[in-house]
Amino acid sequence: MFPLIAENLVVEFNGKHILGPLDLTVNKGDISLILGPNGSGKTTLLKSLHGIMKLKRGSIKWSCSDKSSMQKQMFVFQTPIMLRRSVLENLTYPLLLRKVSNSKVHRLATEWAEKIGLKEIMQLSATRLSGGEKQKLALARALITEPEMLFLDEPSASLDGKTTVEIENLLKSCTKNGTTIMMSTHDIGQAKRLAKNILFLNKGILESNQLAETFFLEPKSPNAEKFIAGEILE
Amino acid sequence: MNDIWYGILQACQLIYTLDQDLIEISVRSLQVTLSALVISSLFALPLAAVLAVKRFKFRRFIIALLNALMGLPPVVVGLIVYILLSRSGPFGALDLLYTTAAMVIAQIVIITPLITSIAHQSLRELWSEYHDLLISMNTSHIQRIKTLLWDARRALLTASLAGFGRAIGEVGAIMIVGGNIDNATRVLTTAIALETSKGDFALALALGFVLILIAIALNLATHWLSKTEREGRW
Predict the structure, then answer these.
(1) What is the dihedral of CA A106, A112, A115, A120, to 10 degrees?
(2) Which of B80, B95, B119, B137 might form a disulfide with B48, Cβ 3.0–4.6 angstroms?
(3) Which residues from B are below 8 Å from A97, CB to CB?
(4) Nearest-CA residue of chain A relative to B147?
């Protein structure tokens, strides 16, 4: 499946330039965090790479077929989208799409419900969960398929510290299994805790693509330096 | 006012004594209406889902047409079905005129646009909620339609019940194509029309109350069986 190679990527929406042109390579096992101010194109980059946003120009190539790559990647949205079903049915949904055997579906769903602390309320409607619980369920619903690539769009935005740590722990555990992660965030602390690579976007341009340790010490872009210092970018 | 009280009393008496004519007419009413409802729903609900999920040429036109057909005058439908099924019509050889089958056909024509339009409204809202998730999970059109139909089943039940309400109370079309023949095509509504024209208002009212009771009982039973409005369930 890897590497993922994006070349000369340009995205426009209703005639307005949103992202690019940019080139990017994602290798297996990378944990890349995308930083940047609001409207810098973080979500657009994630959705483009995932294949759910049309490109104006450029190409995104996986080392396997597009159909096969779509089966091996999952996306977690900033605002969790819950199926109007129970917690258990939300967990089983992606497995049933993949025609996993019934016995395995039930075992995996129960295991993941326990991991995210929702086993006692598996039969409850997912729409009745709190924001943090919904986001954990959305993440578990993605991870239950053991994706090779996981895209996350600010998954811990507006969550409290405890839930953020729980989500980060789930992400750390899945990286041990070799899942490649690309995630956007506004939280510099979270980027320091999780990232191997940092992509810094500003006004749709990829201004910096560095290893995390060098990014925070010697950012290549002046705007990135200001962003790390907490200054407001114009 | 006396006629109303007398009608209520007579309705109670007819029900209490299990009047054979009343039972026969009521059963036939339910048979015709439920047959039309089931056949119409089997066609209308998937059509509504396709209209919500797929983008194709003339989609907007079809939606507008279905909305317009919600107000289709039943007498005109009856007349058209009559012409089609009459001996000189294209389907005359089927010999369906003045049978309950003809009444079912007329009711299907009347309620299909209604059920489709109401169902489409609900499914369109659900699709806007699910769109990003189902696209990101790389679901096929069939999987999306199945998911929407299942998750919106309570709303779809309401759409079907609206169709049931329209069909069970319909008189114009089924009078024309059914002929209101005793022991053959007479149903509650056509019997009410007949008794009113004969001046037997009390019996007409009694039949009317029975009709209302059946409609309410079926609605309540459907809601109870589908567990609508119960805490924590969908």
Answers:
(1) -50
(2) B119
(3) 137, 139, 143
(4) A83
Mutation choice for A interface testing from B55, B138, B156, B231 by most A CBs within 10 A: B138
Confidence band for B1, pLDDT divided at 50, 70 and 90? low
Tell whether the model's pLDDT for residue B139 goes beyond 90. Answer: yes
Map out the domains of chain A as residue ranges.
4-81+148-228
Please give the CATH superfamily to which domain A4-81+148-228 belongs.
P-loop containing nucleotide triphosphate hydrolases (3.40.50.300)
User: What residues of chain B lie within 8 A of the CB of A127, using their CB?
Assistant: 234
In the three-class reduction of DSSP (H, G, I as helix; E, B as strand; rest coil), residue A17 is classed as strand
Domain of B186? 2-223
Please indicate, yes or no, if residue B231 is contained in any of the structural domains. Answer: no
Query: What's the gap in Å between the CA of A192 and the closest CA on chain B?
Result: 28
Cα of A125 to nearest chain B Cα, Å: 6
Residues A196-232, buried b or exposed e (16+ Cβ, 10 A)?
A: ebbbbbbbbbbbbbbebeebbeebebebbebbbeeee
The ipTM estimated for the assembled molecules is 0.91
Q: Looking at chain A, which residue has its C-alpha nearest residue B133?
A: A81
Q: In B59-187, which ranges are continuous DSSP H helix?
A: 59-69, 74-85, 100-136, 141-151, 153-168, 172-178
Residue B232 lies in a domain: no
Mean pLDDT score of chain B: 91
Residue of A50, A83, A127 lying closest to B136 (CB–CB): A50
CATH number (domain holding residue B167): 1.10.3720.10
- Whether B154 is covered by a domain: the verdict is yes
**Is B230 a member of any domain?**
no
Shortest CA gap B152–chain A (Å)? 8
**Domain total of chain B:** 1
pLDDT at B233: 47
- CB-based contact (8 Å) between B143 and chain A? yes
User: Does the beta-carbon distance from B138 to A71 stay under 8 Å?
Assistant: yes
Distances (CA, A) of A5 to A25, A42, B132: 5, 17, 23
State both tokens at A44.
């657009």
pLDDT in tens, A45-104: 999 999 999 999 999 998 777 777 788 899 999 999 999 999 999 999 999 999 999 999
Q: Output helix, strand, coil percentages for chain B, rounded to the nearest 5.
A: 80, 0, 20
B30-44 residue pLDDT tens: 999 999 999 999 999
CB contact under 8 Å between B136 and A86, yes or no, is no
- The number of C-beta contacts closer than 8 angstroms across A and B is 39
Say which DSSP state A233 is in: P
| Most A-contacting residue of B137, B144, B148, B230 (CB-CB within 10 A), to test interface | B137
